[in-house]
Write a structure and sequence with these properties.
The protein is α/β, with parallel strands linked by helices. It has a single domain, classed as Rossmann fold. The protein contains 8 helices and 5 strands, in the order E-H-E-H-H-E-H-H-E-H-H-E-H.
Length: 206
Amino acid sequence: MSRGRFYVVEGADGVGSSTQCVKLVERLTRSKRTVHLTAEPSSGPIGKVIRLLLGGDRSRQAIHRELALLFAADRLDHVAREIEPRLHEGIDVVSDRYVLSSLVYQSLDLPIEWVRELNKHAPPADATVLISLPLDDAWTRLEQRIAEGTPREVFDVRTTQSRIHAEYGRLARRMNGAIVVDGVGSPDVVAARVEDALRATNCWPR
């Protein structure tokens, strides 16, 4: 049995990365692949603690230190418990966020090399796709989501989101194999771009 492929979709809040994860699963399934959708923070015990902290009101510096450590631990648990067993069974895995998220979010106020060291044991994805959208568009979506009842989290500040957008662009360029896809347009239009980009980089099943 051949090993499954591990796909990661990344992006700042409001760019539509979660929607594109669902679309990617649909398209891979149409290509006769068995696919498992997951996300970080994971649904495991450490992931649940992370979600509580994300909604907290403690100082940003303390939050970042705690989150950096917790995300790294949650990631290893996520890989061992959910991702790796499925890949071993020949199932493709699509994850909404992975290591790049930690490098972006936790390095806003912490040394990036420390964050990178925490995550050095996380196995690399076969393909990482970054959905890119102008800050104004992403912020409008994020504010609408909050207005509709989604709780505001510690990173949901416009100045913070501006830094997050910039860091994603900078770090994606430094990651070998990271694929940047324009997120402007309907979900189906963007999904077609994601598939085309994966095909162009030989990351699509034959």
